[in-house]
Amino acid sequence: MRRGVRLENLLAWPDGLRRLAVAACVVALVGALGHQYPGAVREARDEARQKEALSVLDREFAGGNSIVADQGGLLEARLKIPPDGSYSVSVGAPVEGWTELTAPFVPWFARYFLLPRRQLADAPWILCYGCDAAAHPGFETVWVGYDGISILERRP
Amino acid sequence: MTLRAVAGLVVLHAAFAVAGAGVLWALRGRARRSDAVRLVGLGYLLGVATLGLLWTVLLTLGVPFGGATIVLSVTLVVAVAVLVGRRRQPGVERSGPRSSRRATIVTLAGIVAVGGYLVALFRVARVEGVFSFDGWAFWVTRGKAVYYFDGLDEQVFSTVPHPSYPPVIPILDAAAFHAMGSVDVVTLHVQYWLLAVGFVVAVAGLLAGRVPPWILWSSLALALVVPRLRTNVLAAQADLPLDYLVVTAAVLVALWLVDRHAWQLTTAAILLACGALVKREGLVLAACVLLAALAATGRTRRSAWPRLAIVGVAIVAATVPWRLWHATHGIEGETGTGGVDTLLTGRTIDSLRLALDVLADAERWSLVPTIGLVAAILAAVWGRRSHAVYATVLVLLLTLAGASTSIVFPEIGVTADEAVNPIVRLTVATVLVISCLTPLLLAGVWIGRPPVDDASAEEPAVP
After folding, report:
1. Which end of chain B is more exposed for a tag (fewer CB within 10 A), N or C?
2. Nearest one of B237, B240, B109, B263 to B185, comparing CA atoms
């Protein structure tokens, strides 16, 4: 069939109008796609580069980087507290280096990060964020890091 | 990311695809090779849903969740599917017109465009961290708990935020950790990438042959790159996996409105049942799909409505094991705090207005809702009216469901701020539904209204 005849059939009244309407919708979709697609690919590429540049630890902490202040506290807790052990989190007054998210959310992030160690109220280990060690009789400080973070262990 | 971890994930997801292909075979009979290839994405999502449902039941019964459970349950699903499938006649599927050379070229262009973007996303997925609050505060925390404690651990599950949220995503995360050989919370994002790929392949496969490729791929590709969707497609949380299941089920139900093949409705039921165990609102979204189907089958209600009712009952029944588990482990469900008083205040109007404003926001969703609206109007005039009714009612119900959050929970502010109100997140499902139904609506208009609009020909119209 010649192209002209085919086009004539395609646009013949009354079917031509509905086909034109569909074609117009698809043109709009393709136009929107042409507008969005390059930006989406560029964003993905930039994000990949940005995240490739992060250290392994920064990727693992990810959202926690805005909460935990110095990463050393939780990393040391992973080393000191045995995997089948338990701990509690004691948070005191904020110190320099903390963000506004540190005090309210560090117990939540610790629960995520330190699993399978369980977060329990009466645990033999305390992850201390600016807490008063004297308020925990029977515990001794076994590690002190930056930003007011320390780890206490119940004396045998 | 390590190659070993990625390889483990690929093997796990291949197992989902094999199990799902088996279930699909059992439901619809042996497929021609071309159909088997076309439906590979649907089979994959069906495998995820089937095993998600099975693992939820097993874990609520206290069965330890480890490598052996994963392997045995996949084997069990495949064995049962093969036993049932062998008894079935070959599946009868209406095949589309033979693809022309031009259509093949357009299809390849669509695959290249979508594939190019998905490859770019994979580069992010392999180095992504758990940045979202919901991700680390409870979704991945619960996944780690399932992995470390071999099941639904009461101590962890009862102390994280939203303890009554269903367990399928944590279970899938735990399965991924077993497959990767460690709790690799970075490579875990490749799992969410695979789910996105599976969803695209599932929808494209369902619509291929029914929708001209130039209509199908323009809509599907745009859905992937709209600004709001591309910001969280890899987030390690349940929102998008839920949307994939519900939207794929919604497409299957749309096809069932015309074909009335039992396998389409059964497959949709399995996907929706799993959705109800992915997030609490999965039940609401399933209700939206079924209510829209009820509205679109008014003329054939004697045959259609009992089937849809059975699907509804099956979906609710699938949630019972989890509900029993959390009720017997001291975890209370989170119910709305608003009453009739809240419903009758200006807050209801404000919430509805907000939901519509968010849906109409072209900066978030580009032209998807606008073209969807035009497509529904065109379909009502020139296309399949059953599809026009179904799509319109479904989008309206999903919008109402989104608005209902700040009505049922008056403590949630009526704002599009995502840190306060989940309306934007909830609208993703609506936009994906529009993106996937628009090609079907437009194809119906392009082809022209058939002499018989849908399976309503089976029954005389009820006066």
Report:
1. C
2. B237
DSSP bridge partners of B208:
B211
Nearest to B255 by CA among B95, B92, B440, B43: B440
Partners of residue A35 in chain B, C-beta under 8 Å:
366
Taking residues B84-109, report their average pLDDT.
76
Tell whether the model's pLDDT for residue B341 goes beyond 80.
no
Residue B114: name the closest of B198, B170, B39, B182 by CA: B198
Rounded to whole angstroms, how far apart are CA atoms B311 and B308? 5
Interface contact B446-A47, CB threshold 8 A: no
DSSP state of B208: B
Q: Which of B242, B172, B245 is nearest to B9 (CA)?
A: B172
Give DSSP secondary structure letters for B162-173.
Answer: STTS-SHHHHHH
Residue that is written with structure tokens 């089979």 in the block? B43
Amino acid identity of residue A107, one-letter, is: P
Does residue B274 register a pLDDT over 60?
A: yes
- Look up the ipTM and state it: 0.91
| Rg, chain B, Cα only | 21
Cα separation, B76 vs B72, whole angstroms: 6
Question: Residue B457 — left, alpha, or beta (φ > 0 → left; ψ -120 to 50 → alpha)?
Answer: alpha
First to last CA, chain B: 63
Whether residue B272 contacts residue B315, with contact meaning beta carbons closer than 8 Å, is answered with yes
Cβ of A115 within 8 Å of Cβ of B148? The answer is: yes
Residue B93 confidence (pLDDT) above 60: no
* pLDDT tens digits, A48-103: 999 999 999 999 999 999 998 889 999 999 999 999 999 999 999 888 889 999 99
Contacts of B230 in chain A (CB under 8 A): 40, 43-44
Instruction: Give the global pTM.
Output: 0.93
Please tell me the distance from the alpha carbon of residue A113 to that of residue A63, in angstroms, as a whole number: 11
Please, what is the angle between helix B213-225 and helix B368-382, to 10°?
Answer: 150
Helix boundaries (H) for chain A = 3-11, 15-52, 56-61, 72-80, 102-114
Residue B237 in this model has a pLDDT that exceeds 70: yes
* DSSP 8-class letter at B98: P
